[in-house]
């Protein structure tokens, strides 16, 4: 087996930019997906039936179609439909955030429904508003219950972020593609990227474990 990692070394400074972009993309997608996922979960448990059905259809659509198709659709169809020249990074964050929200909303909905109904009834008997019941009683408990699934979703976002290289985002995987094109060394370039992703996933897993321990202590 002929391996020569020395050919990859001159391109390592460019890898730093790719890693930063990957992290930035993952953070923004996670924030957007989580925020929209919370709102979507509340929509799906709404007593207003048409709104709840709309939320269920949204979830069904984004969970039932390939993420790659959603990414390509947003990137190429947005200029055609609304006349906005969306950047590849914006398209990626939008596609991944919208897709992630569908999964996160289901986790949050399950977490909300897992909270004992007696707590809501007791709070209502004391005259606490519905907004404060949800904000101060139900959602904090729901988030503790679903924290592992939220961490898993963030890890999935980080790994799936490599798809944005397809539309030209200069992320970590894009770096490997460029190095391969210039050096014709596919194994060296992609094994470096695989290790980078592995390290980032392990760091995110460690952060998730820390948050779970803190959540258990706070109980």
Structure report:
It contains eight helices and no strands. The longest helix has 33 residues, at 12-44. It has helices at 12-44, 49-64, 67-82, 88-114, 117-125, 130-160, 172-183, 186-218. It is an all-alpha fold and 219 residues long. α7 runs antiparallel to α8 (186-218). Helices cover 81% and strands 0% of the residues. The chain is globular, with a radius of gyration of 21 Å. It has a single domain (5-218), classed as MetI-like (MetI-like fold), CATH 1.10.3720.
List keywords for this structure.
219 residues, MetI-like fold, mainly alpha
**Count of the separate structural domains:** 1
E-strand count = 0
- Please state the structural category: mainly alpha
What is the level-2 CATH architecture name? Orthogonal Bundle
Percent helix: over 70%
Distance, first to last CA? 55 Å
Classified by CATH, the class is Mainly Alpha
Largest sheet: none
Shape assignment: globular
H and E order: HHHHHHHH
The CATH homologous superfamily is termed: MetI-like
Low-confidence stretches at least 5 residues in length (pLDDT < 50)? none
As a percent range, the share of strand residues is: under 5%
- Our count of helices gives 8
Report mean pLDDT, rounded to a whole number: 89
The CATH topology comes to MetI-like fold
Rg: 21 Å
Secondary structure blueprint with pairings:
Elements: H1 12-44, H2 49-64, H3 67-82, H4 88-114, H5 117-125, H6 130-160, H7 172-183, H8 186-218
């Amino acid at each position: 087996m002929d391996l020569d990692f020395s050919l990859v070394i001159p391109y390592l400074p460019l890898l730093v930019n790719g890693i930063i972009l990957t992290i930035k993309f993952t953070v923004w997608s996670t924030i957007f997906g989580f925020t929209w996922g919370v709102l979507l979960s509340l929509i799906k448990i709404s007593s207003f039936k048409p709104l709840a059905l709309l939320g269920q259809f949204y979830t069904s659509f984004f969970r039932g179609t390939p993420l790659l198709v959603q990414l390509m659709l947003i990137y190429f169809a947005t200029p055609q439909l609304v006349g906005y020249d969306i950047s590849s990074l914006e398209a990626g964050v939008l596609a991944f955030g919208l897709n992630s929200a569908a999964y996160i909303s289901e986790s949050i909905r399950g977490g909300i429904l897992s909270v004992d109904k007696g707590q809501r009834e007791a709070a209502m008997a004391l005259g606490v508003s519905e907004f404060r019941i949800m904000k101060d009683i139900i959602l904090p408990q729901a988030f503790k219950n679903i924290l592992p699934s939220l961490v898993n979703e963030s890890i999935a976002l980080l790994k799936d972020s490599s798809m944005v290289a397809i539309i030209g985002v200069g992320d970590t995987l894009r770096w490997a593609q460029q190095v391969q094109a210039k050096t014709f060394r596919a194994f060296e370039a992609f094994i470096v990227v695989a290790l980078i992703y592995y390290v980032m996933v392990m760091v995110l897993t460690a952060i998730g474990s820390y948050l779970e321990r803190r959540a258990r202590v706070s109980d």
